[in-house]
Amino acid sequence: MYGFIEQATGKEHLALVYGQLKENEPPLIRLHSECLTGDALFSARCDCGFQLARAMQNIVEAGNGVLFYLRQEGRGIGLINKIRAYHLQDEGADTVEANEALGFAADMRDYSFCRGMLSFLNIKSVKLMTNNPRKVKALVKAGINISERVPLQEGNNPHNQGYLKTKAKKLGHMFDSSFID
């Protein structure tokens, strides 16, 4: 486990390394934004906890890899604002509409600081577990080669189908059509 402090925000982030990373082989990685409700409280409103569990399982099955646990709760709006957004969602707003009603962008997360974390671990190329095109673009912009994008489609349930459809329609998340239908 390695801890990092993002200088611009003071936020603390983690890199959990499993196994021995191989110098010339891109490791399987996950950039996972903190989600207290999904990760620790097992909320079914999102897919975060399900994705976290699957990502860790995939890394173990691969024999090595890195889980980057990023302190960007609620797509970067923080826990209290996420709770406010939940109330708006309970009144009919989708996740994007709720964030925007609170005065935020649909997704406030920033992945640029991950470059330093990857550099510290001497990682130049990765197999990235994600459905989020913004994560792909951020790593490419940071000079990290993505040798493979590994879909991470977990946690579809009756409580989050609208949430998943909003991620696909409004945020461009890459899901197989069978996953969200």
Automatic annotation (TrEMBL):
It catalyses: GTP + 4 H2O = 2,5-diamino-6-hydroxy-4-(5-phosphoribosylamino)-pyrimidine + formate + 2 phosphate + 3 H(+). Residues 1-151 form the GTP cyclohydrolase II domain. GO terms for molecular function: GTP binding; GTP cyclohydrolase II activity; zinc ion binding. The keyword Zinc applies. Zn(2+) binds at C35, C46, C48. HAMAP family: RibA. The active site is at D107 (proton acceptor), R109 (nucleophile). Pathway: Cofactor biosynthesis; riboflavin biosynthesis; 5-amino-6-(D-ribitylamino)uracil from GTP: step 1/4. Binds 1 zinc ion per subunit. It comes from Photobacterium ganghwense. GTP binds at R30, L31, H32, S33, E34, Q51, E73, G74, R75, T95, T130, K135. GO terms for biological process: riboflavin biosynthetic process. The lineage of its organism: Bacteria, Pseudomonadati, Pseudomonadota, Gammaproteobacteria, Vibrionales. It comes from the Bacteria. Its cofactor is Zn(2+). It is an enzyme of class 3 (hydrolase). Catalyzes the conversion of GTP to 2,5-diamino-6-ribosylamino-4(3H)-pyrimidinone 5'-phosphate (DARP), formate and pyrophosphate. One of its GO terms (cellular component) is cytosol. It holds the Pfam family GTP_cyclohydro2. CDD domains: GTP_cyclohydro2. Keywords: GTP-binding, Hydrolase, Metal-binding, Nucleotide-binding, Riboflavin biosynthesis, Zinc. Belongs to the GTP cyclohydrolase II family. NCBIfam families: PRK00393.1, ribA. This is GTP cyclohydrolase-2. Its EC number is 3.5.4.25.
